[in-house]
Amino acid sequence: MTRLILILLISLTMSPAAHAAWQPAPSTVQGWQKILDTPANLTNNTTNDHEVYALLEHRGLLYIGYYTAGIPNSRRAARLYTWDGTTQTLKYTFGTGLAFASLQALGEYRGNLYAGISGLAKGDGDIYVSKDGGTTWAKSYDTTMDYFCSTLVVFNDKLYAGMGYASSRITAFDGKTWKVVYPGKPGLVEWMYVYKGKLYAALGGPQASNAALVSTSDGITWTVDYEFASVAATYAETASLVEFKGRLYAGMLKGGSSGGDLLVLDDATGRWSVAWSNPNGNRLHAMEVYNGRLYVGNANATGAGDVYVSSDGVTFTKDLDTDIREVFRLYKYNGSLYMGSGYRNGQARIWRKNDSLAFKFALRKILEEESIYARNYIVSGLSNQLVSAFDEERWLKVQDDWAQALAGVYASLDTSGLTALLREHVRIAKEAIAAAKNNAEFELASIKEQWAANADQTAIFLNGVNNLWPKDEIKDLLIKHQQYVIAQVSSRIADDGAAELNSFDLDRFYMLKLADALSDSMPVSQGGVP
User: What is the pLDDT of residue 159?
Assistant: First the structure.
């Protein structure tokens, strides 16, 4: 308890303003950051639902399709925004005055941008085209039958649109005319996806047992591949499709919004099976593969709109825990993974994940612990009590964590070699603390030389793994760590609390700077930002 109180007091005594440049941006350890809240002109115009329904890269920008449903109807609209990495800008407004207005689908075809609109009346599900990046729009497909246009995908040089509500129709555009190519059945086309030379369309509806999958190889002849009632009679929708490690996965929704599973296709038998059952029983609206891992976004009426991740498609862990109700889209853009969420007023938000950020914040945590546990050793070592085994072992474990974190980025890294160097620095530091405690100046000078040599060897080792890691800066920061650890010892012996805490503050500052020097010099091939 004393040790915990000490750490808390030290944290409160620090002067973050002096070192503000080295503080991380708000993020989860996994590298997610909430970058966009619901646009102000959406919250000002509506009082009910806001959702991010569509994400698409076009002409270097991220295009975002929103849904709004509020009171009165005259304020409801489907709105298109762009994001350039810094600013979100309203680009266009569709469907003003509809009882339900959603920009549910975005697609790019032959260099032009297409937008699919959804509403609550026949004829609302129109498709628009823009040839100037979204500034001006013309109606490309004027439907008289469809309520929804929920998905757009290019296959065999045609643009396919998944429509529906009264009937799950599919229409195709060859650059000149639109043509209905699949008449469908009651419900809607939730999602379309190209997998191993075939176009798959996921069908669904409000009732249990409506979920089905149809496919085509030529865009003309369609086959009912699967009626998902044979897996579970309660499946109402196939909400998302994605290929992962050479297999096709489907995110399911049960009737009555009661939950869903992740299914996987066996290509040999043509049968689907449950790969993963969501522990929260949520429906799976969104999936994306990012840096070799499968991400799944779910939805739940209790506000469990979270993101899960898996390396094998079987075992999942929660990667992002939010307070919103539904995750609607996951999409890769500019080296990062984006998530669009929504449901009630103000929940239409955009989150971003970058694996280099995950590495950055994990390494910061480890090297901050280096300062903390070095200090714990100093405090116990200079007291009249024996140094606890916990203090020493925990300090040594930091070295193991540090080596493992770098090995997680560079698989070829000699983990045992780096661990040996880092643990050696702890041994030398312990001798330096003992020499300073005993006022053995001649011995301390010799130990400092050993510590500097260890810093040089460590810097050379790391630079050999990644030549972008700055050898001279790493060595300098490790030597500063040495200086401020010894300064803490000297200040504590002199009973100068202010100087002692200042030395700890500076040691922590330089350890965080070292973490940033390593994480900021990751090449793109190792997960860095392009």
Answer: 98
Q: Is 525 helix (H, G, I), strand (E, B) or coil?
A: helix
The domain spans of the chain are 2-27+358-526, 32-353
* Residue 528 φ/ψ, nearest 5 degrees: -70, 165
Q: Which amino acid is at 140?
A: S
| Alpha carbon of residue 304 to chain centroid | 16
Rounded to whole angstroms, what are the CA distances from 15 to 302, 312, 344? 40, 44, 40
Residue reference for tokens 């297409």: 114
Helix (H) or strand (E) segment spanning residue 389: helix 389-409
Query: What is the C-alpha to C-alpha distance for residues 460 and 277, in angstroms, rounded to an integer?
Result: 48
DSSP 528: -
Q: Hey, which residues does 127 pair with through a beta bridge?
A: 116, 141
pLDDT value of residue 99: 59
Give the separation between CA 82 and CA 64, rounded to whole angstroms.
Answer: 6
C-alpha span between 431 and 443 (Å, rounded): 9
Q: Counting Cβ atoms within 10 Å, is residue 455 exposed (0-12), middle (13-18) or buried (19+)? A: buried
Neighbours of 441 (CB within 10 A): 9
Closest CA to 254 of 302, 306, 298, 199: 298
What is d(CA 214, CA 198) in angstroms, rounded to the nearest whole number?
A: 10
Given the structure tokens 């760590």, which residue do they identify?
481
According to the CATH classification, is domain 32-353 in 2.130.10.10? yes
Q: Which of 34-38, 217-221, 357-361, 507-511 has the lowest mean pLDDT?
A: 357-361
Q: Which secondary structure element, helix H or strand E, spans residue 507, and what is its range? A: helix 497-519
Element (H, E) at 200: strand 198-204
